[in-house]
Design a protein that fits this description.
The protein is an alpha/beta fold and 363 residues long. It has seven helices and 18 strands. An eight-stranded parallel β-sheet has the order 9-10-11-12-13-14-15-16, covered by helices on one side. A four-stranded antiparallel β-sheet has the order 2-8-7-3, covered by helices on one side. A three-stranded antiparallel β-sheet has the order 1-17-18, with no helix packed on it. Helix 7 links the parallel strand 14 and strand 15.
Length: 363
């Protein structure tokens, strides 16, 4: 097979669809869609809760038992749940009280606080699943968020949650409910450095590190499940070994530490060449941090790292983490015999400012 720069393998899924006709329903609702046909080979026809929708395009990738949210006034469809997806996520808000220099979703003054609608949708999920809750910063609405999770846990024991938070908004008053929900939620909290200077610079918020470290005590007191996340940047690379010591000494109770490659989107695109770390050339700072934490029995995983950018000794730590709706593989990946186990690349990854030593596995 002849490979060309344009022969990328894309795995992209449109999560927001439009329909063009007026329907019976007037209020937003959740339901399970059924494909009933096509119109003029250009528009799929969908039946959902006694409503028939004429989509703006042909839908080729509808999964059985998907759950959609329908917004009649806007004629908008959100594909809320796909059974085969690795990333069913509720975007609760785009507001955030930090401005991380590599944020892939820069803050906006927009909320999506459709808690009742989400409840209706989650009642339709019949198999065990983990739903992400992301932002922005979801805990800007901490009370409503925790009450929502509690409600869902009471009517559908199949559902667990993985919530991304900067941990700036927990208080002693949160502990009781956090404890009640400790088996239902895995909190994913970023720590970007072992010092206030490094962490506060990366999140662009003075005092954030001190608040973060203090508030993690509330999670500890609640017996909460915690994942610590760190994005690899030029701004914190030299600090990785010190960060691993901090985690190993004070946070050995966490479930795992996620070390993550940067996503070239949002704020990350600005001065990307001054943020991106090419781990295909030098993995030593990362390997040292991993080895130290492993020696202290703290599990470590690698997210968003293509396998060919990771030394053989650490490949088993790499998670197929990039969401299926924004994933692609490069031409060189066609030759790789372990591609099915690889996370691949973000849709917006570029060869010209990306990894310089990609080598597919040929055995």
């Amino acid at each position: 097979m002849k490979l060309t720069p344009s022969s990328l393998v894309l795995i992209l899924i449109n999560l927001n669809l439009r329909f063009r006709n007026k329907i019976k329903a007037t209020e937003p609702f959740a339901g399970v869609p059924e494909l009933v046909g096509q119109k003029s080979n250009r528009n799929s026809l969908i039946k959902i809760n006694e409503n028939q929708l004429e989509l703006d395009a042909v839908l080729h990738d509808l999964e059985q038992n998907e759950i959609w949210l329908i917004f009649p006034e806007e004629k908008l469809i959100t594909r809320f749940y796909r059974p085969d997806s690795n990333s069913n996520t509720i975007l609760l808000t785009e507001r955030c009280d930090q401005q991380c220099i590599m944020c892939s979703q820069p803050p906006k003054s927009k909320d999506y606080l459709y808690f009742d609608l989400y409840r209706d949708a989650l009642k339709l999920v019949s198999t065990p699943n983990v739903f992400g809750i992301s932002g922005g910063e979801p805990t800007l609405y901490l009370e409503e968020l925790l009450e929502f999770v509690r409600d869902v846990s009471q009517f559908n024991s199949n559902i667990k949650f993985h919530i991304l938070s900067n941990a700036q908004h927990f208080t002693s008053d949160s502990v009781k409910l956090l404890k009640e929900l400790r088996e239902v939620i895995l909190w994913a909290v970023p720590i970007y450095g072992s010092t206030p200077e490094i962490h506060d610079y990366i999140v662009q918020k003075e005092g954030a590190f001190g608040t973060l470290i203090g508030n993690l005590n509330f999670l500890f007191d609640a017996g909460a499940r915690l994942e610590i996340r760190t994005v690899v940047l030029q701004q914190n690379l030299a600090n990785f070994i010190h960060l691993s010591k901090l985690i190993g000494q004070h946070f050995r109770w966490i479930e795992f530490w996620s070390i993550m490659q940067i996503e070239r989107f949002g704020f990350a695109r600005k001065n990307y060449e001054k943020k991106f770390v090419d781990t295909s050339i030098d993995f030593v700072p990362i390997s040292g941090a991993i080895s130290l934490c492993q020696a202290l029995n703290v599990p470590v995983y690698l997210y968003n790292f293509p396998l060919c950018t990771v030394p053989n000794d650490f490949k088993e730590l790499s998670i197929n983490s990039i969401s299926d709706w924004k994933k692609k593989y490069m031409p060189i990946c066609e030759l790789c015999t372990i591609r099915e186990n690889c996370t691949g690349f973000f849709e917006w990854y570029r060869e010209e400012d990306g990894f310089k030593n990609l080598r597919p596995t040929l055995i």
